[in-house]
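Bit of a strange request maybe. I'm writing a small parser for structure token strings and I need a real example to test against, not something I typed by hand. Could someone generate the tokens for this chain?
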Amino acid sequence: MYELTKDFAKAAGAPFGKCIEYGASIESWFTTLHSQVTRACNILKEDKDLNGKDVSVVGLSQGNLVARGIIQSCDAVNVKNYVSVAGPHSGTSTMPQCETGFICDMINKVIDFGVYSSIVQGFIAPANYFKDVTQYDTYLKDAAFLPDFNNERETKNDGYKQKFAALERLVLIKYNNDTVLSPIDTEWFQFYTAGKKGEILPIEQTPLYAEDWIGLKSLNEAGKVKFVAQDGNHLSHLDMDDPLVTDYIIPALKANTKTNLRTITDI
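Reply from user aminoacidic:
Good idea to test on real output. This should exercise your parser:
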């Protein structure tokens, strides 16, 4: 990821690029998302090249929720441009695809114990954005991360909305052949209708968008959002071909003449 970050920064004309290491791959499964956001924010605060600066952020898969945490709650940096690659923004109705083996067997057993129990929520990161629309009230009450940062609960955090709505560019990349997240529409902030798994609401009809819970509607109406759908048999979760990078990712990261942008890749 370090090389990818450097390549993005070079192509975008940014002074440099940094990959924020807030947790190893396995650790990111077994550390709550709130903890990961806090750790990433502290890293940014301690980095003299980034603290207080305008930056661009690229989020990959689950890392998009950490990226959202940085954008919406971390005062260390000012995020101007945000590219989301296959992010579970509205949650997932199944646990992200996991290879067979001891780790996966353990995760599945823990999930079976009760995904919204305090034990699972405090131990398995994907449980923090697992959304069962047949238990929507339980999800709202007990899921430890996503209902908070999506402003889904009755009490809204206006600061989260203001900071997200302050973005200058937002690119949401969805993979039409994604087999990791369900539904894939979550990558565009869409999801199943509450209580009706199987029926996907158009984004304009989702409460998050229609009532502008996090400022997505405001951004879109200002012409700052690009929805990108990737087709093709070879393009699935996190696959990036040259057209995707050159046509969508790099243009979104290119330095604005008024700001000195840095590039962070958040994985």
